[in-house]
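User: I'm curious whether this sequence folds into something compact or stays loose and floppy. Could you predict its structure so I can see for myself?
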Amino acid sequence: MQPRNMSMSGVVDLAAVKAAQEAKAKAEQARAERARAGDTGAVPPSGLVIDVDEAGFEREVLQLSTEVPVVIDFQVPRAEPSAALSAVLERLAVEYNGRFVLARVDAEANQMLLQQFGVQGIPAVFAVVAGQALPLFQGAAPEEQIRQILDQLIQVGEERFGLTGIQVDASAAERAPAEEEPAGPYDHLLQAAVDALDTGDFAGAVQAYRNVLSEDPANTEAKLGLAQAELLRRVSELDPAQVRGDAAERPKDVSAQLAAADLDLAGGHVEDAFGRLVDTVRQVFGEERDTVRLRLLDLFEVVGPDDPRVVAARQALARVLF
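Assistant: Here's the prediction. I'll summarize afterward.
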């Protein structure tokens, strides 16, 4: 689905000039009151990305929008295009350093908000500026285009509503007192998996991680560990020279390309591995395409969902699939 952009020149049409002036005055008053109280209003970097639901929307978004533009990401995390876009927005929220705040909304769990905003498809991105809702774009969009839209939004927020952003205290995380975490219920199983990896018992590590996930399917450490252990187990059984030769001779052979991608990733050639499998998805169909897609998702887990190379590969995969 192509992004549906909106022109920032239409913001005044959504709110009366008087409302804009009042919002600007309130923003300036709030800053002055904080200054008198010695409160900078600074937030830690973690406060730049928040999760919002229907119950907390007014408190967390509408009120916040009187200080800083709030970008709303209506997302379905398990959908690849939505997850890829969300990762880009989260990274940009940190990079823009308080010039906007990103509010993530689970579209499936907050249907009323979707109706109120008139969301017609996911992913969809809106903004709230001084209490006024603005559609930004719908569907996947190139990062350069997203940056342009955000820059326009920030400019509108500052010039017409007096929203200069919020201050970010990068040292807040460093000052937070370290708390010793209590032992988790699966620590012994996770440690058993690590011990198995250290001794080269990849099958044992795979089983140990699976034991954790059978009781706690959302365990992030176990999911990452399982993906890594399965990769190491597959690579340990390969003849690198034979794999490379087979992959070069048979570019549409799914088994050959999967094995070569495993070697690429294990050898640190992350982009080569992702590119190889995206190209293979483009050339095959049916069950074979699904097999390659699932392996690519496994390799994403190995590298980590927030890695820029994973974000880029997710976008490339989405373009091939959709």
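Summary: Residues 17-36 form the longest helix (20 residues). The first strand starts at residue 49 and ends at 51.
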